[in-house]
Amino acid sequence: MKRILLFIVTNLAVMLVLGIAASLLGVNRFLTANGLNLGLLLGFAALMGFGGAFISLLISKPMAKWSTGAQLINDSTDPTHRWIVGTVERFSKTAGITMPEVALYDGEPNAFATGAFKNSALVAVSTGLLQSMTRDEVEAVIAHEVSHVANGDMVTLTLVQGVMNTFVVFLSRVIGYFVDKVVLRNEREGTGMGYFITTIVLDIVLGVLASVVVAAFSRHREYRADAGAAALMGKKQPMINALARLGGLDPGELPQSVQAMGISGKPSGLMALFSSHPPIEDRIRALQQLP
To answer: Which residues belong to the active site?
Structure first.
């Protein structure tokens, strides 16, 4: 319930900020007496598309800490905590990135990485992961998350999301205007219900299609992070073993803001099109084919 409430409140706050920004910049005045101002509409679409994606990215780290209850362990003296922090530090040096914050949270077996920049990231592992895996397997999972950070996956995924959001906002309003004025022959000044209904429907439909594209990119990025983990460890078997272990476990639910950066998911059927993670079997097969 806390995560759902946080998601709703965060999105409402983002939309409020973007609405104010659009008014101040004047890009929300794309509907004129002479028709659509495509330049202003593109500016509005870009602001809403990239603005929302980047605001979500910038607040991803504090939101992830709050929603999962993750506790930083960088300065902890607990032996297990020191081992986790030392593992992250070792892989970070090998990957050439600044040491991330390291956190532990209570939950089912999973882990995630988040943060707006690769040199100010957060790597978090769950208590369930530590209890379910050998040290070699946990290290492989950590290497996978560090690889996400080193590859700049958080920013790249945000850019892809921003581009898709922009297309959705732009196309839905252009098509909505066409339906209202050409198909429904609304000759009154301004737009009618045809524009608003078409825009709302297309925001949903095109948004779903955009989610498929973003998810496909996210799945591709998982294969790359798996290979990156094998490279950081100097061997691929621990990552294969970790994935095999995860295949028999319930990875638990992560907040939507960091779901794509988790270690695993369980896609099936049609919903696999919207999954940020490929099937475990495919990931293992790809690792086995590495030299």
So the answer is: 145
